[in-house]
Amino acid sequence: MLRRALGLLPRPIAAARARSFSTDLPAAHTADATFMEAWNKVMPNMDPPKTPLSFMHPRPPTPSSIPPKLTVNFVLPYASELSTKEVDMVIVTATTGQMGFLPGHVATIAELKPGVLSVHEGSETTKYFVSSGFVFIHANSFADIIAVEAVPLDRIDANLVQKGLADFTQKLSSATTELEKAEAQIGIDVHSALNSALTG
Amino acid sequence: MTSNAAVPFWRAAGMTYITYSNICANLVRNCLKEPYKTEALSREKVHFSISKWTDGKPEKPTIRSDSPEE
Asked: Which helix (H) or strand (E) covers residue A117, if one does?
């Protein structure tokens, strides 16, 4: 029985290597051949229109050895906080707990909880409070962090945080419907995370 | 393979992820220090104009500037 198990072992690993991960992108974007032909027939003298994909830089392929730095893209809906910045480590607050990402980290997708995001570069650390979002780590040590709202910690007003925490704790006790309870709970979660970000 | 047993509390209460995320973002914005707070809240203001159509013709549009719901 053990011999059969040993025989089965290499096969799943080989199969896994053949399957590509969903977080991998093809190395380069090639223009659609049929479209090009049709375009050249109709408009031989004009350049074909560019598609959004041709403007995007293809993601660099996964290097064979672990790169020395993690490249971070930290974006918000209204601004790009960090754009392909090379850093040593990023620590985020995921719903499953605090996670640290070093270069060479396995490809991961994590949902963020309201909490602190810290970016470590050399001896400096930049901290942001993130309201919620996602972080995608790709196999080639590129990290995409997308957040709805992220503020540096020094922009947070401690008094408003305390007041909010007290408000929502009171709302939770007086809530009747499931939705009200959920909203009050969210308020408590966010304000206590803000609190610990300010004090921690 | 994994069961959907461990749903987050907000989804169990009928809220979608987007609503949850927007509520969190609004709460954070409301806790900012002064110049940043007004900047953030004015950045998120939504202005839109609505016009009802009857018999294939638009009526006079009304302009609404609702602050985004919480």
From this structure: strand A115-121
How far CA B17 is from CA of A86, A134, A170, B23, B27, in Å, comes to 31, 12, 24, 10, 15
* Same domain (yes/no): A31, A67: no
Question: Cβ distance A72 to A104 under 8 Å?
Answer: no
| Both tokens assigned to B56 | 């294939």
Tell me the count of A-B CB pairs closer than 8 A.
76
Q: Mean pLDDT by 10-residue block, N- to C-terminus, for chain A (200 residues)?
A: 60 51 54 84 86 78 86 93 91 93 93 94 92 93 93 92 92 89 92 91
Option in B8, B15, B30 nearest A160 (CB): B30
**Structural domain range at position B15:** 9-65
CA distances from residue A185 to A25, A115, A117, A129, A198 in whole angstroms, order as listed: 39, 15, 22, 19, 20
This prediction's pTM: 0.73
Any B CB within 8 A of A190 CB: yes
